[in-house]
Amino acid sequence: MLRFLTAGESHGRALVVIVEGLPAGLTIDITLVNRELRRRQLGYGRGQRMAIEADEATVLSGIRAGQTIGSPISLLIGNRDWKNWQKTMHVEPEAPGDATGALRPPVTRPRPGHADLAGGLKFDRTDLRDVLERASARETAARVAAGALARQLLGAVGIEVVSHVVAVGEVGSDQACTVAFEDARRIADDRPLRASDPALEQRMVEAIDRARAAGDTLGGAFEVIAHGVPPGLGSYTQWDRRLDGLLAQALMSIPAIKAVAIGLGTAVAARPGSQVHDEFVLRPEGDGRPRVARMTNRAGGLEGGVTNGEDVRVTAYMKPISTLMQPLRSIDLATLECAPATVERSDVCAVPAAAVVGEAMTCLVLARALGERFAGDTLDALEASMAAARRRVDERLGRAPDDAGADES
């Protein structure tokens, strides 16, 4: 069973991630991990931290001669900004004599919308930095590294995961389930916001500029599309095995994500069934013989919590970042007097970065479901199990067994 854990604070020495459950024999390219880390740092509206950090992962264990060996993989992502925070974030009871950086005062004015107050009450911390350092979205760099490993497993069996920005603030369009996978795949990473419509993207940029000038922040929405996902991942037999629920939980766990939709999402509540459900038809293949197919993919590739062979499509909705340069009202917990909320270095908009994190979480959920459906301790065993299942599916949907076998060769 694929699982992962992360550790580390935003301004601590480093982030660490441990990934367990990848099959042995999977070739890992660490440059692809670092590529995903760089993608997370892109996007119009990011703050000064992105100019300081240039994230790279170092493999500590679990990979030998470029391949997974079955044991847990651990990665280290150093924080370059650590040198400026040693007097504040030291592990020792007292800061070492050679510690560098300024000593920051305790944080006592919680930010509305952040975990500051709730976390401080939960863990009984008077300095809210003990909360915000871990609750920070900086932790998602470790998730992206873990997701990049899962992405390489998915890629080995023909599954690709991409994303595109659907909306920033009030600027957006009803693009969920309408942008084709290939079109989303062609969006360049160096585009300002990785939106599918360049004209709409320019309006998004202008909205971010207005928010920055006002000392405000903006949220938005992004869609993740997984292509090549085989049918049968997930299960309807128990509530906690439904893949749509697992995907929703995974994306909701990303900081600032407040809603998740599968396929058409909330639009299904306003439409009649005839405009929601995906009809089955017989569609001729290249050899002229009909095969069971679907007219549409409004369900987003999932029915009853199980993948149905169509593209998996998940949309996530992100609230504006909680740190405002024109801070909202708060209370100083040290004096119980009214005061402006704490201001931490932050972004104006991070929707494109959140989309990369969304891809990573989707990769991790799909990789885990893949391992459960086609169990194997090695990549060869997993691929053999998938090939056998694919032949059976092709038979059920109208492709002759000899044709299916030819495809495998």
Structural account:
With 409 residues, the protein is of the alpha+beta class. It has one domain (3-263, 299-373): 4-Layer Sandwich (Chorismate synthase, AroC fold). It has helices at 30-40, 49-52, 86-89, 116-123, 129-135, 140-156, 181-185, 198-213, 243-252, 351-373, 379-396, 401-408; strands spanning 3-7, 14-20, 57-61, 63-64, 67-68, 73-78, 160-168, 171-172, 220-227, 257-262, 280-284, 290-294, 302-303, 306-307, 312-318, 329-332, 337-340. The strands form six sheets. It has a five-stranded antiparallel beta sheet. The longest helix is centred in the C-terminal third of the chain and has 23 residues, at 351-373. The protein is globular, with a radius of gyration of 23 Å. The two termini are 29 Å apart. The relative contact order is 0.16. Residues 403-409 have low confidence and may be disordered.
Layout of helices and strands, plus pairs?
Layout: E1 3-7, E2 14-20, H1 30-40, H2 49-52, E3 57-61, E4 63-64, E5 67-68, E6 73-78, H3 86-89, H4 116-123, H5 129-135, H6 140-156, E7 160-168, E8 171-172, H7 181-185, H8 198-213, E9 220-227, H9 243-252, E10 257-262, E11 280-284, E12 290-294, E13 302-303, E14 306-307, E15 312-318, E16 329-332, E17 337-340, H10 351-373, H11 379-396, H12 401-408
Antiparallel strand pairs: 1-2, 2-6, 3-6, 4-5, 7-8, 7-9, 9-15, 10-15, 11-12, 13-14, 16-17
